[in-house]
Amino acid sequence: MEEHSQDVSIHKEEVELLKRRAYEFLEEARMAMRRGFHDGACFLAEQAAQLFLKAVLLEAVGDYPRTHSVRRLLGEIQQIMESQELKEFVRAIKRDFQPSKMRISWLDTS
Q1: 100: helix, strand or coil
Q2: Which of 41, 55, 59, 85 is deepest in the core (most CB within 10 A)?
Q3: Nearest-5° angle of CA 85, CA 86, CA 91?
Q4: Which of 74, 59, 66, 50 has the alpha carbon at shortest distance from 16?
Q5: What is the count of structural domains for the chain?
Q6: How many other CB atoms are there within 10 angstroms of residue 106's CB atom?
Q7: In this structure, is residue 59 part of a structural domain?
Q8: Contact 84/107 with Cβ under 8 angstroms?
Q9: Residue 107 falls within a domain, yes or no?
Q10: pLDDT tens-digit readout, 20-77
Q11: Which domain, by its residues, includes 75?
């Protein structure tokens, strides 16, 4: 029983760390946007989303997949959701979230 309570405590600490880091990345993204660094802001916002989604999964089920895919993390969350409305919301986000690699035209040699 003591081992289980240690696991819960460790998970709680990791959840809090992931959430804190997610909010820090989000604040950095906001600052980047204000300064006109849009590519950097998108990168930082995606990092924030990944960390927060991992925190949600860790808190809900005690683990999360080791991935950088926001779509996969959303899919995992969708599987554990009870509410149909929330499931539809996640489905819409997954459908519309298409990470793209920005091409910088001045680096394109073709």
Answers
A1: coil
A2: 55
A3: 100
A4: 59
A5: 1
A6: 6
A7: yes
A8: no
A9: no
A10: 999 999 999 999 999 999 999 999 999 999 999 999 999 999 999 999 999 899 889 9
A11: 2-99
pLDDT reported for residue 73: 93
What would the two tokens of residue 40 be? 């950097």
The angle that helices 38-61 and 70-80 make with each other, rounded to 10 degrees, is: 30
Report if residue 85 sits inside a domain: yes
**Which pLDDT belongs to residue 6?**
54
User: Which tokens sit at 85?
Assistant: 């409305």
Do 71 and 98 touch, CB atoms closer than 8 A? no
Alpha helices in 1-110 (DSSP H): 2-34, 38-61, 70-80, 84-96
b/e sequence 14-44, b meaning 16+ C-beta within 10 Å: ebeebbebbeebbebbeebeeeeeeeebbbb
